[in-house]
């Protein structure tokens, strides 16, 4: 690895012969014997280092122990870009195009893609292991075949593919779990089913936020042609090499011609045209960048259709996944509305029953008042008749029944409840 040539394996650890060997490296290059960088204070062993997986163009992978400073020098990245890859911090999904690298942070896949290698943050997560094995397999399989996409786009494509597949699989698992619970809740409203739906709804909201972040990042990238142009790392490297070649020819070839040709000798028009043609060919592949730098991609002449079509495909996939989540959320909302309707109906029935009971209590109270009055010990002429009290009870009871039916007809007239 050319960019990490300052790093060496510790003594006694041989280089792996297989394409997927593991190499543990130290920044000082000499184990614990001292720092390999003059003027740099030695830190504790392994302090600030992280485990990374390097995958080259041939599909060979190595595990490296690197610190931030080494990666920043090798990939020309600022420290804030590496902070996006730190698993200790929670950042939204990010795809950044830089001068010499693409910084990718999609779910568990956190890597730095250059024109000829991928530096993947090592993790035991299934997506990281699958990314490493699948990418190495693809590179080794297509080693001798011509590829339509440059190396950096193949690495980015696999990261998007695995991220979209992982999120879609989680959505499908959530659907299989949510729909039966909602159907059961619609038929049987109890605390257990409500608690299950509450837990699943929280999971749904968290998953929706993750999918939405990936969706927004791809959409933001597609809307910015300049950011997409910055991701053509292979083409920018070729332009850089062409510029260096032209500059070398300009410095070496032209002075040599000046030394060979005498001042008094006539200048050959054929020789002059040939040199001009060489210079023109040397600079023919160099186009002015959008920032005015020969190292950057051109905003006018750059063809970004290749990357745009790649992003559109995965944007459609992640948009479909997001639509599934929205449909699932709408189904949950509809179920909640149905439950609220059912609960409201039960509450109305309870109110109706309470109203009937209140009316019955009222008329019964009237009957009790009348009987209570005649049960008092006072002198009245009505008590001189033996059956007078019985007729009072009968007439009072019929009056109470009539009054109760009057209440019922009144409730029906006011449409308080159907009878």
TrEMBL record:
Record-linked CDD domains: Mrs2_Mfm1p-like
Gene3D superfamilies linked: 2.40.128.330, Magnesium transport protein CorA, transmembrane region
Annotated signal sequence range: none
Transmembrane segments: 355-376, 388-411
Keyword Cytoplasm found: no
Top-rank taxon: Eukaryota
GO molecular function: magnesium ion transmembrane transporter activity
Keyword match Transcription regulation: no
Membrane topology, from the record: Multi-pass membrane protein
Residue ranges, annotated region (Disordered): 1-20
Record keywords: Ion transport, Magnesium, Membrane, Transmembrane, Transmembrane helix, Transport
Compartments in which it is found: Membrane
GO CC annotations, alphabetized: membrane
Family: Belongs to the CorA metal ion transporter (MIT) (TC 1.A.35.5) family.
Function: Magnesium transporter that may mediate the influx of magnesium.
The protein's name in its UniProt record: Magnesium transporter
